[in-house]
## 1
Amino acid sequence: MISYKRPDGTSVEAYLIEPANPTNAPGVVVIQEWWGLDDEIKNVANRLAKAGYRALVPDLYRGKLALEANEAEHLMNDLNFGDAASQDIRGAVQYLKETGSTKVAVTGFCMGGALTVLSAGLVPECDATVVWYGYPPLEYVDAQAIKKPMLAHWALHDEFFSITGVDQLEEKLKAAGVTYDFQRYDTKHAFANPKSDSRGLPPLQYNAAAAELAWERTMTFLKNTLGN
């Protein structure tokens, strides 16, 4: 765990994992699901580090973790999304750039996906975004402010983030001339999280084939946008 400064000067704790050769390596800020900074989101960061990226996961819940869905919902509802994107996430991107990464992307899952969409417009230092099955209320998305490419993975049978909303978000981005690639999968919410099936929530389901395909597309996108 390390500590970095938000633009307003407040400190944030974060999980940082460096690749084997960190010199000039591009960076990726990884945003948690609504559970918090748990082992699964750390595993995502570790996977990115093995692929050659400096991965940083801000602790948006300030040390709190949720084990049950009602706890997660409570923590998520207490989070100020605008502040998290414009301060916590922007500060994380700035930290990676200040410590050696020329280019930095933001990626996030579920709640973190929604925050990634917000960050695309609120973090000017961000060079690319990868969204995993999550979007904020569309009235908060300033598509005109999104200047860098976005890759997004969506579940067609998502009970938390409807595919209708995805279609509306796509129209918004298209109208603003954003460079984006929306990929839709015949899956349920959280299809890339191997722990989804153990949560006891029917709307969640891990899908290994879809997850692997989404990761292949993600790695290609990151290589093309950040270099590695």
## 2
Amino acid sequence: VIVDDDQRLLEDLETILGAESGFCLIGCYESVEEAIEEVKWTEVDVLLCDLSLPGESGETLILRATTINKDLHAVAFTVHDDRQSLFNALRAGAESYIIKGLSVSETIAAVKSAFEGIPVLSPPVARFLIEDFRSRATEHGDILSIREVEILKLSAEGLIYKEIADRLCISPGTVHSHIKRIYRKLQASNRQHAIQRAEDLGYLPPQVSENI
């Protein structure tokens, strides 16, 4: 499903994606209200949505659509390259954020990536996520080194100090020293707390802690 109030762009996208092998274009709409009324969202895999629309905003549609269909991949497709627009779209449920102006092949590739669950961020806004991560990491302590992240990941997998030491070819004492620094940097009191803090800050993916 494509939602954009630029009629010419909407027609171009309909032609491009409608003719692409493997695509089933359910519908193209110029407003959120029209899309909400017409679309059966449980049958949609990808939503390509502008953010600045007449009436309800694109973020509103993304939130509603992804609430109805948890498996839907929402792509914000916009001219806005500012921090606030990016984070508003991500909070609403967008997985990808694309600045308008892509070539035909790039547009097709972005939609395919979205369908496969691969987030796509245009370079002008990707830096906002990096800056946000660094800012939050600084607020909550020093940034972990690559070695510390590696040790914390092995610890999250349930390995004890000696097993981590054997895996990394270092001494258990060195592992212990690294763990102490990790706790200090993350302001954590124990392993589970440290792992949770690392997940919150983006050092570890959430699923790692499932093995604790």
